[in-house]
Amino acid sequence: MRGLSNEKSRIETRNSQQGVILYLIASFLLGALTVLGFAPFYLFPVPVITIACLFYFWRKSETPLQAALLGFCFGMGMFGAGVTWIYISLHEFGAVPMPIAVLLLLILCSYLSLYVTVTGWVVRKLHFEAPLVWVLFVASLWTLSEWLRGVVSFFGFPWLTIGYSQVPSSPLAGYSAVTGVYGVSLILILSAAFISLLFEKELRSWRNILFLPVIWIIGFSLQFINWTEPQGEPVSVSLLQGNISQEMKWRPEHVIHTMDIYAKLALASNSRLIIAPEISLPLARDKVSANYLKKISSHAKQNKGDILIGMIETEGKSGDYYNSMFSFGTSSEQTYRKFHLLPFGEFIPLKPVFGWIINLLKIPLTDFSRGELNQKPMSLAGQSVAVNICYEDAFGEELIYQLPQATLLANVSNDAWFGRSIGPHQHLQISQMRALETGRYMLRATNTGVSAIINERGVVLQQADVFKATALNGLAQGYTGATPYVRFGNSLVLGFVWLSLFICLIQTFRGRRKTL
Length: 516
Fold this sequence. Notes:
six-stranded mixed beta sheet
């Protein structure tokens, strides 16, 4: 009898282990499927379902360790599928050997997955019995972890913040102007948490079922509120896309060709506002021919407007150099210096530890200096333009420093680093969120794409073909006023998150005292 009992126990243990492995594989696949919610796919319901399944797995986990492993696998699936463009940047353009590039990508994905891992561990460890308390806790903790990922990871890596997946078509996008991207994440996770409860028969109550349509209807209704209003007449714009290949951009023999392309595109434009991409001229400002700058400036004046063009700015005495945008034309010359630099691409964090990476990466100019955070908008072509360079538009809480004074937003980028991947499209979706949050048009001028004109609703009105030298010509309407997000930034959603976590912990403490 004892032998039969031991054999039965071994079979149950083996079956349990096999079940855990299947759950881990399923979590990885669910994470990978979550990427379908983001651009270029825009299947916004997918993340709600995949995360609901993950939450169901967490609720069925036997230990906090199991929940943590499920969260880690989900994160590896999502980031592994969603940030593959980093491999392209490292290997194809950074000349990092393939094995090392793969290893670095795995390390980054593992680090980013830790935020989901810890969330799963804490949720299962505290094990809230009351369904509504559990829903509030998991949604608040997930949102807090996303916010921390956006500010902690070497000065922030908010890519694939789950709220972006709802832009621009989901009803939940209506919350963007009120709470920003993290608020949209919070509402999405609340939805997924309630759906996960519906997987359990004993928790299918009318309150859980009713909650979902209510918060989605509220989000849909918010889309009809005009938080900002048009100011003046639309301004004609030209967004220049030079399509300079990354491997050729910094070669000295190719500089003249690059300058000729952008001069040709600019001089062919009759728009009042002409915008060229980030470091469109791969030279320091003081190395560019005065005749060249005079020619494009004179043309902008003929159009009764201005041209904005990217170059490197150097300071002779200090030796510092900046990723800057310069304006020329009817307005006085103005400069914007990039504040939020890209880790390992534009600066080396913790240089005593990671300084060796400079020798590994074949990337020019990896030690930029940082501009000021509170720079003023540029006065260009009768508009007040909030300029942000490349990675900066991923940080909405920093962009609003130039608002509500700014009437237009302009993002200039060089997404050639992403190659022919989904990266440029994800970056476009981030810009769409910034337009929604601020109630402003966003103008995107990029080297290889995606260059686009985005309206105040986050809708792409015009878009240039990728990897094509062209000028995207159109109209942009200036807007004035302030959305709630412009006024309060992330404080509304973070205040709600901290208050919710406090209430949940108090409820748990009281419940445990009653059982003693």
